[in-house]
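Lecture notes, continued. The same structure-token format from the folding unit now serves as the input rather than the output. Read the line below as a description of shape only.
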């Protein structure tokens, strides 16, 4: 009987030893993975379902909404990325929006104050002029929007298409570099 009890003790001691050894080896492997993980590759700020209201002296200037936003401060040139697109409504102190911008991707580079909008970019100004392109840049310091891609501008009278575009942010002083078509629309 004594012999059976001693064998159970040896067996239980061996089981505890094996379990502890297994636990230590599995923890060591996980620690090595964590050590090799680069925390600087993560965004410094991220958010989902973003709605931001910018005001000046109590008057709404713009409302920005996006499904996701990530800010990267750890890179050489900090930027904010909207990988799932964004939409901005400009109010400029009015009660109703005077313009809006939408795209399926956007990026803002902080130091350069440069916006890059990509994929299905649509801009509509207060006059109802609609600009459509695949890529558009907005330099806030120079108050200039531009692209080297194909653009289509539509209003109630005409549709103008071309490649390359420059304008002020309100689309009032615009220039299409290589006009390919001007189509006048008239009701008959």
């Amino acid at each position: 009987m004594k012999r059976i009890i001693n064998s159970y003790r040896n067996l239980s001691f061996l089981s505890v030893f094996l379990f502890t050894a297994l636990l230590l080896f599995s923890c060591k492997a996980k620690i090595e993975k964590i050590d090799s993980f680069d925390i600087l590759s993560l965004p410094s700020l991220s958010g989902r379902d973003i709605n931001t209201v910018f005001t000046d002296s109590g008057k709404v200037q713009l409302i920005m909404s996006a499904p996701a936003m990530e800010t990267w401060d750890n890179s050489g040139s900090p930027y904010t990325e909207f990988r799932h697109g964004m939409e901005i409504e400009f109010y400029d102190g009015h009660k109703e929006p005077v313009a809006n911008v939408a795209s399926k991707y956007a990026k803002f580079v902080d130091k350069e104050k440069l916006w890059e909008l990509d994929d299905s970019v649509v801009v509509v100004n207060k006059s109802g002029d609609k600009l459509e392109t695949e890529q558009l840049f907005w330099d806030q310091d120079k108050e200039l929007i531009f692209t080297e891609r194909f653009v289509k501008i539509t209003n109630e009278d005409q549709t103008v298409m071309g490649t390359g575009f420059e304008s002020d942010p309100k689309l009032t002083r615009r220039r299409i570099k290589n006009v390919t078509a001007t189509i006048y629309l008239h009701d008959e």
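Point for the exam: Residues 46 and 70 are 4 Å apart (CA to CA).
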